[in-house]
Amino acid sequence: MRGFVLALALLALPPCASATVQWTDTATVAKSKAAWGRLARLPDGRWLAVTTRFHGKGTPTTLTISLGDSRGREWKELSSVAEPGRNIDNGELLVLPDGRILLGMRSLIEGKSYRLNVHASDDGGRTWRFLSTIDRNENPRGRKDRGVWEPVFSLLPDGTLSVLYADETLADGKPSYNQVVSQRTSRDHGATWGAKSVLVAEPGGGKLRPGMPVMSRMQDGRYLLVFETCGDDPQCPVSTKISKDGVTWPDGLGTPLADQRCGPQLTATTRGTVFVTSCQNEVTWSEDNGASWKRVTPPAWPFGFRHTWPAIYQFDDNEIGVINGVPGGGVQIRFGTF
Q1: Residue 16 within a domain
Q2: In the record, which residues are listed under signal peptide (predicted)?
Q3: Domain for residue 237, yes or no?
Q4: What is the pTM of this model?
Q5: Is residue 271 a part of any domain in this protein?
Q6: Number of structural domains, the chain?
Q7: How far is CA 185 from CA 133, 154, 165, 196, 240, in A?
Q8: In this structure, what CATH number is given to the domain that contains residue 308?
């Protein structure tokens, strides 16, 4: 999606100042019974959104694909994806250079089967077909904490497709890792996947739960990874790591990132500014490739810490948008200009 992102003009600010963003209008992607909104931009400039939809007790969740205009203001439902008998969530979209769209998700029968599945569309998101399974656990022995969760795609410069995800499948090993951040790569755009690589884990194993990873390529060519680490703190503080190539990462639990907790999301603009948000519902930004961070005041959504699962995207030269779950069960985007 980087290829469709335009340069972002920032105001010159003194050191350690807060960024000034004028939050403007709001667009509704889903009105009710929805959560977890994620976006991708189509080659023609329009947007796709995926949201999780809830249908009442005993009925599995589904994913709805919505089509938005080039400004992200007007949305209409386009298609729906279901896996019969399975709850699906954590939708993630990626548009490949040839126009094919990938839809990643977690798919589960609680206590029985946990999968990260990929569906593909060759007609702009109108129809979908199953493509592959990234990782799975088909023998959790009734456990609810032996799953795989929150896949996030990135396309590397050589055309390799990367997926990061939270992984509980090493919890029964020796040593035991309650949860780790794992990565797999694909040379055929998601049809098949290579061996698992662990990017973040508690040294020596233990109760800590690094997870919900997202990475983005910064202006200097390096990759910034943000992730939460649950276990000691129920609000799951966020940390960062940096990689030269997006596949080789330093050991350890990374560098703490202030003002962010639980479920971090980021975007790196072609101007070089990196924006991060999370369930803390703050927006922070860096102009020096993640070396230092400033906080935007006021935030896009004045919710404080809340499991709303926001994500942040660039829409125009001087515009960003934060998609978020809102009271009443809807999903909306709030736009902001510098």
Answers
A1: no
A2: 1-19
A3: yes
A4: 0.93
A5: yes
A6: 1
A7: 12, 9, 12, 8, 21
A8: 2.120.10.10
Q: Is residue 291 part of a domain?
A: yes
- What pLDDT shows up at residue 19? 56
pLDDT digits (tens, 9 = 90+) for 48-102: 999 999 999 899 999 999 999 999 999 999 999 999 999 999 999 999 999 999 9
Q: Which of 126-130, 313-317, 330-334 has the lowest mean pLDDT?
A: 313-317
Q: What is the pLDDT of residue 270?
A: 83
* Residue 128, domain extent: 22-337
Task: Round the average pLDDT of the chain to a whole number and report it.
Answer: 94
The better pLDDT of the pair 15, 287 is held by 287
pLDDT at 249: 97
